[in-house]
Amino acid sequence: MARSTDLVTPWPLSYYERWHRYAKEPVGLLTEEAARKLDAAAEPYTVVIGGPDRPYGFIEVSGDCYGVSFLDERGREYLMYTFEESGNGRVFLKEATHRDYEGDSDTVSKATIYRFWTDGRVMIERAEQPFKQTNVSESRTDVSRNWETKPTFGRYDQLLGKDR
After folding, report:
1. What residues contact residue 149 under an 8 Å CB cut-off, 6+ apart?
2. Residue 4 resides in a domain
3. Is the pLDDT confidence value at 1 over 60?
4. Does the residue 121 lie in any domain?
């Protein structure tokens, strides 16, 4: 497993070409050097957070966008964040999704999606199984906690905060 030598997170980091959502595992192990080159070229790669047997989550890096997924004990994505660069060396949390699952299955029973704008607008979409109808509401909120410093390679701590 390729691990970062300048690790800040309390979890080991490993680098891959991508995350296979159906198999719930990373694909295409990369060396740290190969991942660093992809990062410098703004090419996509995936950072797995935590050990290979039970990762805490993963980050899909694609240029100036960061898709952060937190995994439950069954390897299901239950919390996802999407950050996008917004200038001045900062990224903005533009979307957060929370999913609940039916028991031990991979069937989503409920999902809530929050879409944020830098001016404080927020749209909340709630859906429950069988997902034929969704409830959408809009409001305003303080988005000051949605801003983070753009991470440098191997230092993703600021994207891993769950309490936002």
Report:
1. 89, 90, 91, 158
2. yes
3. no
4. yes
Would the pLDDT of 7 be above 60?
no
- Cα(34)–Cα(160) distance, integer angstroms: 23
- Dihedral sign from CA coordinates of 72, 162, 94, 115: positive
Reading phi first (left if > 0) and then psi (alpha if -120 to 50, else beta), residue 88 is in left
Tokens of 147: 């801003």
How far apart are alpha carbons 153 and 151 in whole angstroms?
A: 7
- 29 contact partners, CB below 8 Å, separation of at least 6: 1, 2, 14, 15, 16
3-class DSSP state of 74? coil
Same domain, 104 and 57: no
Which tens digit of pLDDT belongs to each residue from 106-127?
A: 999 999 999 999 999 999 999 9
Tally the domains of the chain.
2
- pTM for this structure? 0.89
Distance CA 26, CA 43 (A): 17
Residue 44 included in any domain: yes
Full residue range of the structural domain in which residue 23 is found:
1-63
Query: Are 47 and 105 contained in the same domain?
Result: no
Q: Could you read off the pLDDT of 65-85 as tens digits, one per residue?
A: 999 999 999 999 999 999 999
The count of other CB atoms within 10 Å of the CB of residue 156 is 22
Would residue 163 count as lying in a domain? no
Residues 58 and 23 in one domain: yes
